[in-house]
Amino acid sequence: MVHDSFFWLAALAALLVGLSKGGLPAVGMLAVPILSMVMSPVKAAVLLLPIYVISDLAGIWLYRRDYSAANLRILIPAGIVGVVVGWLTASLVSERAITLMIGGMGIGFCLNIWLRKASNAPAQPVQALKGWFWGTLAGFTSFISHAGGPPFQIYLLPQKLPKVQFAGTATLLFAVINAAKILPYQLLQPYAAPTLWRAAALVPFALGGAVLGAWLTRRISDVWFYRVVQISLFAVSLKLVADALTG
Q1: How confident is the model at residue 81, as a pLDDT?
Q2: Which residues of the chain have pLDDT under 70?
Q3: How far apart are CA 67 and CA 86, in angstroms?
Q4: pLDDT of 1
């Protein structure tokens, strides 16, 4: 396995997942598209879930003291509701339509920031109604294609949290969401031993990525951190739209 192109693409995908858990949001969303070059997107999402869950454990440890409790009290239950909705509607929902919608929202959000100088606006407070809406959408889209980052960022970026707190909130929220996805994924498409062995071989790349991501996050200035987040969100959103339009 270590000598074929699949392994190295999968290793890159696992590294990106780890980097996102270490505090570089949106980077992990590139993992499924990368693996889709050599396997179906559905199988890619199934293979990567154990990697997400294991790297979540590293992320929880790294950010165990840095998070917004007020936001998590809203986003965690909302995210779980989103996972349940995704599970119940898995056979009815068009993944292509959801992908297009999420990509379009991400592009619109970034353009609003850049064109209207929204970055100079005062920080917004925690808002329960918005938190429930975007948190539920994050859980739903994360269940469909591990694409929960844009809804989460659209909600949290206007609050202008300290970068480490922003990263920690993302890490803890998606750790819970990913854990909530384990049973539905197993029921919809049971894991086979070869899939789990493949995932196990990728764990070192994910854990290394988590540590590297946390190291980079704590050394990047707040200004550049949020620039990276916005640019990543915009790039991933473009990719989502392109994937939806090209099928």
Answers
A1: 97
A2: 1-3, 25-26, 36-37, 40-42, 116-120, 247
A3: 26
A4: 47
Asked whether 145 and 99 are in contact (CB, 8 A), the reply is yes
Torsion of the alpha carbons at 198, 63, 125 and 174, rounded to the nearest 10: 20
Contacts with 15 (C-beta within 8 Å, 6 or more apart), sequence order = 205, 206, 208, 209
Helix H segments across the chain? 5-21, 31-35, 41-62, 69-88, 95-116, 128-145, 149-156, 163-188, 193-217, 222-246
CA atoms in the 13 A half-sphere facing the CB of 76: 14
Closest by alpha carbon to 138, among 106, 174, 110?
174
Q: Please tell me the predicted confidence (pLDDT) of residue 175.
A: 93
Please tell me the distance from the alpha carbon of residue 67 to that of residue 2, in angstroms, as a whole number: 37
User: What is residue 2's predicted lDDT score, i.e. its pLDDT?
Assistant: 46
Q: CA–CA separation, 62 vs 85, rounded Å?
A: 30
Q: Which residues of 50-76 are buried (b: 16+ CB within 10 A; e: fewer)?
A: bbbbbbbebbbebbeebbbeebbebbb
Rounded to an integer, what distance in angstroms lies between the CA atom of residue 54 and that of residue 18? 9
pLDDT at 25: 67
Q: Please give the angle made by the CA atoms of 55, 56 and 59, to the nearest 5 degrees.
A: 90
What is the DSSP-derived secondary structure letter of residue 40?
A: -
pLDDT score recorded for residue 78: 98
